[in-house]
Amino acid sequence: MRITDVRVRKLTSDSKMKAVVSVTFDDEFVVHDIKVIERESDLFIAMPSRQSGDGKFRDIAHPIKPEMRQAIQDAILEAYQAALAAETTESE
Predict the structure, then answer these.
(1) Residue 55 Rama label (left phi>0; alpha psi -120 to 50; beta)
(2) What is d(CA 92, CA 85) in angstroms, rounded to the nearest whole number?
(3) DSSP string covering 8-60, please?
(4) What are the tens digits of pLDDT across the range 6-36?
(5) Distance CA 51, CA 87 (A)
(6) Rounded to an integer, what distance in angstroms lies between the CA atom of residue 65 and that of residue 52?
(7) Predicted local distance difference test score (pLDDT) of residue 92
(8) What is the SS3 assignment for 64?
């Protein structure tokens, strides 16, 4: 499975959630609402989730293998950095 497109749909700077992203796989399947979250020392991704009846959040879609999660995270963070750079260039 190849990541064929990453779209940063929303950038925010005033909270720990920095962006909302959509990722397309093999030009045939898309996952929306992946979040870029800021931690103390770095950024990570949070897969789309819903709150269940017991108040816990459960992922709607997520990678099974750690290698796939890392590939998705790397592609998203690269697109996020590019979107930030483009936004900075536009505001100058």
Answers:
(1) left
(2) 11
(3) EEEE-SSSSEEEEEEEEETTTEEEEEEEEEE-SS-EEEE--EEE-TTS-EEES
(4) 999 888 888 999 999 999 999 999 999 999 9
(5) 32
(6) 24
(7) 63
(8) coil
Determine the Cα–Cα distance for residues 77 and 83; give it in Å rounded to an integer. Answer: 10
Percent with pLDDT over 70 in the chain:
98
Q: What is the pTM of this model?
A: 0.88
Q: Give per-residue burial for 3-29: e unless 16+ CB within 10 Å, then b.
A: beebebeeeeeeeeebbbbbbbeeeee
Going from the C-alpha of 68 to that of each of 1, 2, 21, 75, 92, the distances in angstroms are: 9, 10, 16, 11, 37
Question: Which residue, chain included where needed, has tokens 């936004």?
Answer: 87
Structural domain containing residue 62: 3-91
Please tell me the total count of domains within the chain.
1
CATH code assigned at 73? 3.30.1120.40
